[in-house]
Amino acid sequence: MQKTNKLKIVFYINLLIAIGLVAYKGYLNFFERDFEAVNARNIQAIRDAVGGREKFSFAVVGNIKNSIGIFERKIVPMLNDAGVDFVVSAGNAVSGGGEDKYRAVHRTFKRLDPPHLLTFGPDEYSSFGAFRFYQHYGPYFFSFDLNGNRFVFLDTTEETPRLWQTLWLRDQLASAPTRNTFLFMSHPLYETGKKPLFEIEESHLQAGPFRDTLRELIGRHEVDAVFSANLPFYSRQTFDGTDYFVTGGAGGLVLNDADNFYHYIKVAVDGDRVDYDLQRLDIGQHGLLRFLESLWFFIHSLFYVGFVNFILILSIFIVVGIKLYTAIFVDRDFYRDFDTDPRPFLDKPLRIAMFTNNYLPFIGGVPLSINRLYRGLKTLGDRVLIFAPGYGRQDKSEEEGVIRVPTLIAFGKRKLLRITNIFSPKLFFRLREFQPDIVHLHHPLWLGSAGLWLARRLKIPTVYTYHTRLEHYAHFVPLPGPLFRNLISHQLVKRFANRCDAVVVPTFSAEEYLRVIGVTAPIHVLPTGIDFERFRQVDDNRLNRLRTEHHLDGVPVLISISRLSQEKNIDFIIDSLAELRHRQYRLLIIGEGNERARLEEKIKRLGLDNHITLVGEVAPEDIPAYCRLGDLFLFASKSETQGMVILEAMAAGMPVVAVRSSGIDDVVRDGVNGFKTPEDPGAWIGRLEALLDDPALRRRFSDNAVESARQHSVAHFAADMRNIYARLLAAQARSADKDSRTQNSRETAAPMRFRNSGK
Q1: Phi and psi at residue 192, to the nearest 5°
Q2: Does residue 200 lie within any of the structural domains?
Q3: What whole-number distance in Å separates Cα of residue 365 and Cα of residue 450?
Q4: Which of 250, 503, 529, 549 has its CA 20 to 30 A from that of 54?
Q5: What does residue 114 show for φ and ψ, rounded to 5 degrees?
Q6: Which residues, 6+ apart, have CB-to-CB distance to 630 below 8 Å?
């Protein structure tokens, strides 16, 4: 097996591990049964089990820390066989206060036959765990009596006010006398003289009034034993007749040496007599092997339940896996293959499948651009099949080259924005039946994503045209605006573009944007074509009828073509023109959208009814006539990648006054065929008035605008796009030829070695 194949196996194993971990964490957090008041329930279970017996036993463990390897697999079976009546955790039963850790430790204790009680310790408190401990186990400090013996549990984490707890403990110890009193507190009261591997200052209860009061009360009331955890070793000391135990060997990182070893304490009570028996877990291995095993168990425990550690380890798995895959399995050649010859594919008809989220009769820049490319490619002899949403009755009865995908949800004023059924088998079967040479994608979401997935299944090259600045459409998305605008939109475009074989952009500013956000796929700058001649050859009778209909005789005519939507910045035009009420002019805004009612009300409120008309939607074939009516074209949108309507306006002979932005910058030559200004009403109005007041300047700009538009015909656009297709197909064919030659050389190499070895 080759090295690359072995590394692929490593990568996929890594991926399966990550998926398995995510699935397990989901199960642990969402499907385990809930539990509450565990300590209270188990106190009742202890009383039921011990009954009126003076003789009973219990085990004390500390620092379980969700240890699967040690506590669950080794100590729990020992406790089940030890015959103890119940088990007490002296603190740090969980490795942290996360919900997943509490659920995991609860699962562990289910394997324990006798009932158990938990002391509230620093690990139970951490990561907002105090709330979870109270919810699942009960109060942080409590006590109960058992056949003349008192068990007292304290909170040394400072979650409980210490004065309140001191008063409560004084009353508890001063109440009716008992035979034996056992106290459980996570932090040790006295230094042990032993140094763990990782000791922190808070391992012991720090000096202060609380510690001094506890020592005084324990000594005065002759407490039999105090059990603590919080340190990973065993210690027994006696002060003023009280035994102080540190038991931290039920899990976590233990060195397995003379001082640090896995253990628990068995306490046998017989009337007034109490015996303490250290139960050491001796693995019986060489010291180094014991240390390695304990270290492995510690890491395993963290890996098993630690949320932060889990995320860290999972991230490392994923990052390493992806880095291995991209660094080793993906060939990188940053230079174009100069031996690729596209001529064989330029000399024959091609089959092109296109996927778009909107198309005619939806009127917009993207549908019109696709339709023009479709017509241009058809003229060149290619076959084109467009997968687009269905619009019901608005679809043409007999559409050649369009597959309408069933709509799931339609929204917008005229239900023209559509979410289609991308899971329809019709997509795959019609695409496979068409047998395309290349797939052209016009959106990075929904139908675009479906087209990319299908193309990969069929091993067909993909081209993505970046039409739309997604960040300017945040108001349409049910997510926080800044989140979508500043992060999600750019990541969507970047990820989608990098998965395609080539990206087409209409302007150099769009190419610059894609490079900035991290697109590494080949990018081709190709302005969208326009029907230049349609805007030059308009019937004069039609123009005269429109002038009469809109009362345009004798006044300068301004034209703006835009969807009536927030991202098109129409408010800027209206607010700016309000400063020109004193002048004679007429602005026709052509387009429809969800902002129409609000804009109409605004025009009326500003007193611009005699200056601005919202024409509404105009059929594509009527757009040239409206453009020839105008003297100037106004544009303020900052969401364009090219602004195709600007080229069409120029073809009709209109100079442009636009707000400077991407897509505009490459088309409008400032001071040549129009003006570009910042989004500043004063500057914008100043340029507009300069053209209105100077007919000679306006004529010169008009002539330059026509010449600029002449360079962007549909025929040139389709031919240039076809050249991109041919290069991709030639590159794919060359790659397949290389793979075939490599495979043939491998198949012949083994017999050659055999013959050579036989000589």
Answers
A1: -100, -15
A2: no
A3: 22
A4: 250
A5: -75, 155
A6: 557, 558, 559, 588, 649, 652, 654
Last residue of a domain, one of 310, 331, 354: 310
User: Token pair 């013996």 is at which residue?
Assistant: 149
Helix (H, G, I), strand (E, B) or coil at 445: coil
- pLDDT tens-digit readout, 107-165: 889 999 999 999 999 999 988 889 999 999 999 999 999 999 999 999 999 899 999 99
626 shares its domain with 477: no
Strand, helix or coil for residue 118: strand
Residue 60 and residue 90 in contact, taking contact as beta carbons nearer than 8 Å = yes
> Which residue reads 């991290």 in tokens?
518
- Give me the domain span that covers residue 593: 532-712
For residues 373 and 475, state if they share a domain.
yes
Instruction: Please name the amino acid found at residue 703.
Output: D
- pLDDT tens figures, 310-360: 665 766 777 677 777 776 666 666 666 666 788 889 989 999 999 999 898
Cα 651–chain centre separation: 44
Partner residues linked to 676 by β-bridges = 658
What amino acid occupies position 574?
I
Coil vs helix vs strand at 304:
helix
539/117 Cα distance (integer angstroms): 93
Q: How far apart are CA 91 and CA 101, in angstroms?
A: 14
* Residue 6 belongs to a domain: no
118, two tokens: 């938990």
3-class secondary structure per residue, 50-82: HCCCCEEEEEEECCCCCCHHHHHHHHHHHHHHH
Q: What is the DSSP code string of 574-605? A: HHHHGGGTTS--EEEEEB--TTHHHHHHHHHH
Q: Beta strands 417-420 and 407-411: pairing type?
A: antiparallel
Burial class (CB in 10 A: 0-12, 13-18, 19+), 757: exposed
Tokens of 734: 């060359």
Instruction: Classify residue 508: in a domain, yes or no.
Output: yes
Cis link prior to 361 (omega < 30° from 0)? yes
Residues 534, 580: Cα–Cα separation, whole Å: 33
Q: Are residues 448 and 559 in the same domain?
A: no
Verify that 571 and 704 share a domain, yes or no: yes
pTM attached to this predicted model: 0.53
Are 379 and 472 within one domain? yes
* C-alpha span between 127 and 102 (Å, rounded): 12
Counted domains in the chain: 3
Domain end: 496, 525, 554, which one? 525
The closest of 353, 335, 332 to 402, measured between CA atoms, is 353
